[in-house]
């Protein structure tokens, strides 16, 4: 048994289910931005990378990619404030920015990133994520969001970009971690 096998409590979404849902969400995104001449796709690395790679294959609007880095977890323990750093030159003035992340949990990472990006005066900032936990932050709720699964996952997730101790991002499926 590998460490991966021991950690997987339950497979939440298979590779096929993920790819199917991404195609559906891309239709919503294409519809929303149909009047836009360019979207800046901004993956929040590292968790948003797998999703970005598959999502952009289905986006029909001209796009460019700009990376932003945020980290908020050490193992299963959350850091009090997310660390955010810009990786690329930011050229988003008057542009539509679509952030891509694995999961919006408390929304702190998202708000931290949004605050930094707003200083560059983009036309709009929206988020697309695989998961989106219910949260009470009004500013997070007000943001336009395209979410693959809104239903609250019942544990810590790994795979398809989601890491446990920086590992298992490469799994093609999403699993709930077993703590035993
Ligand atoms: P937030 O700042 O509370 O919204 O946390 C969001 C970030 O925490 C995500 O971008 C993930 O990197 C990480 N995260 C939250 N929940 C999970 C999980 O269940 N598995 C792996 N990473 C997670
Ligand atoms: Mg992470």
Helical amount: 25-40%
Listed once per kind, the bound small molecules are: inosinic acid, magnesium ion
The dominant shape is globular
Order of helices and strands: HEHEHEEEEHEHEEE
Average pLDDT reading: 91
> CATH first level: which class?
Alpha Beta
Flag low-confidence runs. Answer: none
Total domain units: 1
Question: Architecture, according to CATH?
Answer: 3-Layer(aba) Sandwich
Number of helices: 5
Profile the largest sheet: 7 strands, mixed
- Structural class comes to alpha/beta
List the helices and strands and how they pair.
Layout: H1 3-7, E1 8-13, H2 15-32, E2 39-45, H3 49-55, E3 63-65, E4 68-74, E5 77-86, E6 96-104, H4 108-118, E7 124-132, H5 138-142, E8 145-149, E9 157-158, E10 174-177
Parallel strand pairs: 2-3, 2-4, 2-6, 6-7, 7-8
Antiparallel strand pairs: 1-10, 4-5, 9-10
The protein binds inosinic acid (IMP) and magnesium ion.
The site of magnesium ion has 3 residues, from loops.
């Amino acid at each position: 048994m590998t460490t991966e096998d021991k950690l997987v409590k339950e497979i939440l979404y298979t590779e096929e289910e993920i790819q199917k849902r991404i195609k559906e969400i891309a239709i919503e995104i294409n519809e929303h931005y149909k009047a836009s001449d360019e979207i800046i796709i901004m993956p929040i690395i590292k968790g948003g990378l797998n999703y970005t790679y598959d999502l952009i294959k289905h986006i029909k609007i001209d796009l460019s990619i700009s990376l932003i880095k945020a980290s908020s977890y050490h193992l299963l323990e959350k850091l009090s404030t997310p660390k955010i750093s810009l990786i690329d030159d930011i050229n988003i003035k008057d542009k539509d920015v679509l952030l891509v992340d694995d999961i919006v949990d408390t929304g702190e990472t998202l708000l931290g990133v949004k605050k930094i990006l707003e200083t560059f005066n983009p036309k709009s900032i929206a988020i697309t994520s695989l998961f989106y936990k219910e949260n009470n932050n009004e500013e997070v709720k007000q943001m336009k969001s395209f979410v693959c699964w809104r239903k609250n996952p019942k544990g810590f997730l790994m795979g398809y970009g989601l890491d446990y101790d920086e590992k298992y991002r490469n799994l093609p499926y999403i699993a709930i971690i077993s703590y035993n």
